[in-house]
Amino acid sequence: MTEPIVRFQDVHKSFGDFDVLKGINLDIKPAEKVAVIGPSGSGKTTIIRMLMTLEEPSSGDIIVDGKNLWKMKKKEKMVKANEKHLREVRGDIGMVFQHFNLFPHMTILENCMTAPIHVKKENKEEVRDRSVKMLERVGLGDKLDSYPNQLSGGQKQRVAMARALVMRPKIMLFDEVTSALDPELVGEVLEVIRDLAKHEDMAMVLVTHEMDFALDIADKVLFLDEGVIAEQGTASEVIEHSENERLQGFLRRFRG
Ligand SMILES: Nc1ncnc2c1ncn2[C@@H]1O[C@H](COP(=O)(O)OP(=O)(O)OP(=O)(O)O)[C@@H](O)[C@H]1O
């Protein structure tokens, strides 16, 4: 049986007295596409931030590609070793946020090239070739020398995706990547993600409010409700056929 690329084992997360995640158990297979849906405040972004190693669990284990993220720190109190370990894991994970976080003073080609060259110390020419190919792939081959402020929101989001992909991640995380876009720009961004989902064998985790999109691309959908996974299954099982009343209420609010 294939080992999961991501495993959450009884993960809890509290901020002060507030328990945001209350025992998350989750396996994601290496090429699996997972959509996370749920009401505002249910803990979706916290799961993504934990995967990105930006938040440490209050208890439980998070294992990414066989590496137990915080174990070293807990067991050996070796903070430096743990930081190295986390850096390695981060190298395998690409993330696209709601806001694009591009570097405004760099062209879009430079935006894509900077991390592989400066963080991974890769060969500049090789990175340039890969970056050009990725920008072509997201439909921006004619904008290599443009600056972020010369692009639309949808184009900026596509640069953000290309920039993450140039790092050749094993896992891509998408946190509500269309929610800051004007409605007419949503389609072009979803189209790029759809293309990646259908043709790339990396794992993908998407927090999304686009139910039809989740139905189309997700192998698995998780319904997060008040810090627990209240329902999970295939997209059709969760979005079309679940009898969970809170999930049905949540979906009705989307469908109007
Ligand atoms: N650093 C923090 N300090 C305190 N509370 C936090 C922190 N981060 C998140 N929270 C709280 O945890 C809860 C879950 O937040 P999270 O962003 O994970 O929810 P979400 O499901 O992604 O919501 P939304 O759909 O609105 O983005 C919220 O009530 C939020 O206010």
Automatic annotation (TrEMBL):
InterPro entries linked: AAA+_ATPase, ABC_ATPase_HisP-typ, ABC_transporter-like_ATP-bd, ABC_transporter-like_CS, Ectoine_EhuA, MetN_ABC_transporter-like, P-loop_NTPase
GO CC field: plasma membrane
Broad class of where this protein is predominantly found: membrane
Record domain ABC transporter: where: 6-251
Subcellular location, record wording: Cell membrane
Membrane topology according to the record: Peripheral membrane protein
Domain of life assignment: Bacteria
SUPFAM superfamilies reported for this sequence: P-loop containing nucleoside triphosphate hydrolases
Keyword Membrane among UniProt keywords: yes
GO MF annotation list: ABC-type amino acid transporter activity; ATP binding; ATP hydrolysis activity
SMART domains in the record: AAA (SM00382)
Keywords: Amino-acid transport, ATP-binding, Cell membrane, Membrane, Nucleotide-binding, Transport
Pfam families the UniProt entry points to: ABC_tran (PF00005)
KW Oxidoreductase (keyword) present: no
Signal peptide from the UniProt entry: none
Similarity section: Belongs to the ABC transporter superfamily.
Protein's name according to its UniProt entry: Ectoine/hydroxyectoine ABC transporter ATP-binding protein EhuA
Species per Swiss-Prot/TrEMBL record: Oceanobacillus profundus
Gene: ehuA
